[in-house]
Design a protein that fits this description.
Layout: H1 2-17, H2 19-30, H3 34-62, H4 64-83, H5 88-116, H6 119-150, H7 155-158, H8 160-174, H9 188-207, H10 214-237, H11 245-248, H12 251-281, H13 286-292, H14 294-314, H15 316-337, H16 344-371, H17 378-418, H18 427-435, H19 437-446, H20 451-487, H21 491-508
Helix pairs in contact: 1-5, 1-6, 1-8, 2-3, 2-6, 2-12, 2-19, 3-4, 3-5, 3-9, 3-17, 4-5, 4-8, 5-6, 5-17, 6-13, 6-14, 6-16, 9-10, 9-17, 12-15, 12-16, 12-17, 12-20, 14-15, 14-16, 15-16, 15-20, 16-17, 17-18, 17-20, 18-19, 19-20
Length: 509
Amino acid sequence: MLASLILVAAVANLNLAVANVALPDIGKAFDATQTSLNLIAVGYSLGLAASVLYLGAIGDRYGRKSMLLLGMALSVPASLVAGLAPNEGILFLARVIGGVSAGLAYPTTLALITALWSGAGRTRAIALWSSIGGGLTALGPLVAGSLLEGFFWGSVFLVTIPLALVALGLTIVFVPSHVNESTDPVDHLGGIVSVVLVGSLVVGINFAPVDGMTTVAVSALAIAAASGVGFVIRQLRARNPLFDLRIARRRTFWVAAVAGIIVFGTLMGTMYISQQYLQNVLGYSTLAAGSAALPAALVMVLVAPQSAKLVESHGARFTLLLGYVAIVLGLVVALMMWDADAHYWVVALGFMFLGAGVGLAGTPASHSLTGSVPVSRAGMASGTADLQRDLGGAIVQSILGALLTAGYSASFAATIAANPQASSVSEPTQAALEKSFAGAANIAERYPQYAQQIIAAARAAFLDGDTRAYAAAIAIVLIGAALVFFAFPKRDAERVLLASYAAEDAREA
């Protein structure tokens, strides 16, 4: 049963990760801007993050197994359309729909683990779920890179279709239909508002740095702010709230939720930038770039079982902070040592620290969430746990992508301005050079006599952009570490709090 649930989660994790390696090829195929590539990369997270709370609540009420089956069934056509997309708009739309299919299935996996296991057994099950899921996220680039060596870019989206069909069959056979589900009605209005809130927030962040899109960005962020206020008001007034703010106020819940957003968001944002760095700057093939992330996956899978033991022996706070230390070390390596001449051992070192950090921090973040709620509201906890990954991934990846875009464009514009022949560069050519590395590569192919200078300038501009992104990521992680240090209870206090929450929920039940 656990293997079936992990396989369902694997489909979501692989779909989430495979796009990054293909981004340079997608950029060349569609002559895409860096903003379009950001949206394609974040589209899956957008669909998943926007829908996960609402669909988790529906699963709690109407049947978690049905949600698993619907999610796996929808992922097949979504992957097919993505793999055969004729343009970047259709590809982005297919990625969003694929994210919604994961929103149907992915939160249900953790909700069922919460309902079927308890105590140390639940901690171990969550550690396996978290480590294998995180490992597959890191392994996704290898799968994608292998495919891109012999097939076109769309193959990275088609590869999960057989896996989804197998997961569909195993779910039918092994997963029970109903386990400790709620009989309370679903807050559909709150669910719709939550979709608008997350969707508009991610879109606004992505368009904020784009020239000429200020109105769109400001409008989207204004909608997000209004939706956020409306969502809180609705949840305070609803008889059966989608997101119970009384539970969300518990320290072991909200601090763990924010901590998880930062942990998983940093992983996804770093993977997004690093795959482009490996191919664009170091000149790795797609297979080599995908293989480069293997140390992260390996260390993540090895460390996560130890994380479960640390949670039991030292508490979630200690384990989270240990994970944060490892993540910061990985980001410092990326910031200081991932340059135009970096050797692979430097790249591997950064990935190993990141993998260790996520492997350590992922289990306590999810464990604290599920331990803070009654089993009948497992969908809220699992939805929040998934929101950690996907909202964190969407927001942090969008922020890092926006900083990468802004840094790249500013650096290339400065390079052109400093060139004695700047006046001979036409406006369309300059716009193509500044929009993305793929745009610069296309210009280099059209003007082979200047190809070497163009690619060198593009690599330097990319490094300027990713330096800004990694510096921001370090700042985000340090803020998260400070929050955990000062706000999360130590082991004994945590156990007392969790016991009091369980007693309170039992009295209310």
